[in-house]
């Protein structure tokens, strides 16, 4: 391997709206419509879209949830034998399973990837080290951040916000099945209104279901923008990464 200094990518990146992003995918995004398990077709399709986004030159870190396998709060609620903290650790392990599936789906598209886990699992993934993650990103690798932040009682939304701050991502892109943030659940209420732009305070005061409260508080405190968008629409991951108006933009002030 050459010892020549590697480009930090800034030359190819100068035209980009966002140079580095954290893409938050729910575990269910890897599943068929039932929302459970891992579908080769669904994960392959997401990988194809992420490849198009990566081809723009943007650095991409991905945080994947585990809800297609297990969510700690739900599981402990329905299974009194398991302590809630244990259930959250089980949820974190679920995110590692999803991350490994996503890694192979991305590599099948010719992308270079690294899975970095907040819980050491050295046979299957690197342990998350901020500076090493930055080096991978600067070398054009997609970094898949597994096991959330490694602590129970939060979700991978918080991990996406936390890691976005650590790696100085320009934005958190929260991929959902709907077109953005609505005044009500659009899958139940046909009159729900889609917001184009919101402030963090709007989200907190209106109690809008965007990301968990810790994630919103972290983003608000550090003015890290969030874009909530529909990843199911073909080309939307590229559009979101390119800074096009997709879904709902959330920041300290509304977008003009
Ligand atoms: N989890 C955790 N700490 C973290 C991230 C996740 O305890 O830093 C657990 C938590 O129980 C969570 C589960 O892992 O419910 C799966 O993640 P999440 O619910 O965010 O998955 P998603 O809904 O995005 O698929």
TrEMBL record:
UniProt-annotated location(s): Cytoplasm
Predominant place of localization: cytoplasm
Gene3D superfamilies tied to this protein: Acetylglutamate kinase-like
Signal sequence range: none
Activity regulation info: Inhibited by UTP.
GO molecular function, a single term: kinase activity
CDD domains in the record: AAK_UMPK-PyrH-Ec
Pathway: Pyrimidine metabolism; CTP biosynthesis via de novo pathway; UDP from UMP (UMPK route): step 1/1
Alphabetical keyword list: ATP-binding, Cytoplasm, Kinase, Nucleotide-binding, Pyrimidine biosynthesis, Transferase
EC number(s) reported in the record: 2.7.4.22
All residue ranges annotated as the Aspartate/glutamate/uridylate kinase domain in the record: 19-230
Known catalytic reactions: UMP + ATP = UDP + ADP
Pfam families given in the database record: AA_kinase (PF00696)
Coiled-coil ranges from the UniProt annotation: none
Residues noted as binding ATP in the record, renumbered to the chain: 24-27, 67, 71, 176, 182, 185
InterPro entries, sorted: AceGlu_kinase-like_sf, Asp/Glu/Uridylate_kinase, Uridylate_kinase, Uridylate_kinase_bac
Residues engaged in binding UMP: 66, 149-156
Protein family: Belongs to the UMP kinase family.
Chain's role: Catalyzes the reversible phosphorylation of UMP to UDP.
Self-association and partners: Homohexamer.
PANTHER family: URIDYLATE KINASE, URIDYLATE KINASE PUMPKIN, CHLOROPLASTIC
The protein's name: Uridylate kinase
Species annotation: Novipirellula caenicola
Source lineage: Bacteria, Pseudomonadati, Planctomycetota, Planctomycetia, Pirellulales
Gene of this entry: pyrH_2
């Amino acid at each position: 391997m050459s010892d020549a200094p590697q480009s930090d990518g800034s030359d190819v990146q100068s035209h980009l709206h966002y140079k580095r992003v954290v893409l938050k995918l729910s575990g269910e995004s890897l599943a068929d419509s039932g929302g459970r398990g891992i579908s080769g077709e669904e994960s392959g399709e997401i990988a194809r879209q992420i490849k198009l986004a990566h081809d723009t030159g943007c650095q991409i870190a991905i945080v994947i949830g585990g809800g297609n396998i297990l969510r700690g709060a739900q599981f402990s609620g329905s299974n009194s034998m398991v302590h809630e903290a244990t259930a959250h650790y089980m949820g974190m392990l679920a995110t590692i399973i999803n991350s490994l599936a996503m890694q192979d789906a991305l590599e099948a598209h010719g992308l270079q990837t690294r899975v970095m886990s907040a819980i050491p699992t050295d046979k299957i993934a690197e342990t998350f080290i901020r500076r090493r993650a930055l080096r991978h990103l600067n070398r054009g690798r997609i970094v898949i951040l597994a096991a959330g932040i490694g602590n129970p009682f939060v979700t991978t939304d918080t991990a996406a916000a936390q890691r976005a701050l650590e790696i100085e991502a320009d934005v958190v892109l929260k991929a959902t099945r709907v077109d953005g943030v609505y005044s009500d659940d659009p899958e139940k209420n046909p009159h729900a209104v889609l917001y184009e732009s919101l402030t963090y305070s709007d989200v907190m005061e209106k109690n809008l279901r965007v990301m968990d409260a810790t994630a919103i508080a972290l983003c608000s405190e550090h003015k890290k923008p969030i874009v909530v968008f529909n990843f199911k629409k073909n080309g939307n991951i590229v559009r979101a990464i390119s800074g096009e108006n997709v879904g709902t933009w959330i920041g300290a002030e509304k977008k003009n």
